[in-house]
Amino acid sequence: MDGWPADCAGAWNSGADAGHCYDLRLRDFFSRPAVAGIIGLFGGAFLAWMGYGMIKSGIEKTVSLSEQKNGKSFGIENLVLAGIIVSATNPYFIMWWASTGMESVRQAYEFGLIGVLCFYAGHIMSDFVWYTSVSVAFAGGRKLISDTLYCRIVLVLGIFIAAFSVYFMTSGIKMLVAG
Is there a contact between 161 and 90 (Cβ–Cβ < 8 Å)? Predict the structure, then answer.
């Protein structure tokens, strides 16, 4: 198997060995400058699109907390779809699972299927606690700020995201040129 690390030659003897080699291959793949550059470009483009939308909404004042207070908010199915899209296009999400996440699963697999299930349950529970805390904080904060202030916050955060997108895209271009 040309290109495979030496310790993966007989990897398919056990699931743990296979997971280890899969992890090595993903790390190798994502550490390539061309791959990192493409991820930077696409991630930066997505952030630019998000930043533009936020800046436009903040300037035109098309975002409002009062609509949410009156029950005119998105349905849960739209929020779930939005979460899936944001996660799937987030370069850090992909990189985390390709490196740290994969290694965590590999280590959990050393305890068998129960280890992987425990890792998964712990991971999901930590996400649930974090996002519930953030949601509760935002729901309480809705009572404290006006729609005008909210539009200004969205505008400032949109500018920040747009600037961050420039950083992502220039980093991506540098990686492609260097690769």
Answer: no
Three-state secondary structure call for residue 122: helix
Neighbour count for residue 174 (Cβ, 10 Å): 14
- Cβ-contact 56, 146 below 8 angstroms: no
Which alpha helices (H) appear in the chain, and where do they start and end? Answer: 15-30, 33-60, 65-69, 76-89, 91-96, 102-109, 113-141, 147-178
Q: pLDDT of 18-64, one tens digit each?
A: 455 555 566 677 677 888 788 888 888 888 988 999 999 999 998 88
Hey, what are 111's tokens?
A: 């305890």
Q: Report if pTM > 0.85.
A: no
- 85-to-47, 89, 107 alpha-carbon distances in Å: 13, 6, 28
